[in-house]
Design brief:
By secondary structure, the protein is α/β, with parallel strands linked by helices. It contains 10 helices and 12 strands. The protein binds glutamic acid. The site of glutamic acid (GLU) has 7 residues, from loops.
Length: 280
């Protein structure tokens, strides 16, 4: 059985969609999975939600194996990887604000298909400006593609996906306000936890091309992917806090049996009022 993982962000209490993801990770992993807390963003992460994650998973009876990994404790690891990419000239500093980017993209020749118009790509290196102005670091994805070609990946069901150039862009790898970004942290964490199958919702499939590219560039092993269907309300709405998605804590307070719920989720059976949103 492959080593799988569940990687919630502690920005709120877990809901049924998280329980389904953890159940899928446990099932695909032969009963257990590695747990990672995505607490890279200090503005959104709260310690009480970290405690809530442990509490909810224990209530479900979905036990993880090994040490819990916390992204907030791994900043030096992310920074070292960024330095490697800098030395290889695969990243460049970007001084653009959101407003700068929006202005270029809305100009007549702007390319709305790409998230970032490349304004700072190819600027001469200016250590003085870097020392005095806030900046992020972006992947030079064209240079990366020249080096390794278009990345591809395999899903659990055997389907093979090849990335297309329009799925890639100059993603931010280190933010102005945080030393890493989701993509860089995620690939390093998965590799360091020995994850062989990345289990997550189909809404994160668009992150896979850039993450596969980073795995190549950093010499990390290739996992397989299991992008599972999302859980929604029966009327088609996504589960979100603003839609009053019931939290697992509320279900527990209502007397729901945690292990029985986990068993039915593993069998892909949802409680009344919920339905799967088919993966794309
Ligand atoms: N922390 C992300 C989330 O809660 C998941 C990241 C991942 O699975 O790659 O949506």
């Amino acid at each position: 059985m492959p080593v799988t993982r569940f990687a919630p962000s502690p920005s709120g209490r877990l809901h049924l969609g998280h329980a389904f993801s953890a159940a899928m990770a446990a099932d695909a992993g032969g009963g257990s999975y590695r747990l990672r807390i995505d607490d890279l963003d200090p503005a959104r992460s709260r310690e009480e939600f970290v405690d809530g994650i442990f509490e909810d998973l224990r209530w479900l009876g979905l036990d993880w194996s090994g040490e819990v990994m916390r992204e907030s404790e791994r900043l030096a690891r992310y920074d070292a990887a960024l330095e490697t990419l800098k030395a290889d000239r695969l990243v460049y500093p970007c001084f653009c604000t959101r407003a700068d980017i929006a202005a270029v993209l809305s100009a007549p020749h702007g390319d709305p298909g790409h998230q970032y118009p490349g304004t700072c790509r190819g600027l001469p290196d200016d250590p003085g400006r870097r020392a005095s102005s806030p900046h992020s670091w972006r992947l030079d994805h064209r240079r990366a593609l020249e080096r390794i070609g278009l990345p591809s990946w395999t899903e659990r069901d055997g389907r093979h996906f090849s990335a297309t150039p329009d799925q890639l862009g100059d993603a931010i790898l280190a933010r102005k306000d945080a030393p890493s970004s989701y993509h860089l942290a995620c690939v390093l964490d998965d590799a360091d936890q020995g994850v062989e199958m990345v289990v997550r919702g189909a809404d994160l499939r668009p992150s896979t091309p850039i993450q596969r590219l980073l795995q190549h560039l950093l010499g990390l092993p290739e996992p397989t992917y299991f992008h599972h269907e999302l859980v929604g309300h029966a009327d088609g709405r996504r589960l979100a806090k603003r839609d009053q998605a019931p939290t697992l804590a509320a279900m527990r307070a209502d007397g729901v049996d945690g292990p029985a719920l986990a068993a039915s989720l593993t069998a892909r059976s949802l409680p009344l009022g919920f339905a799967f949103i088919a993966p794309t």
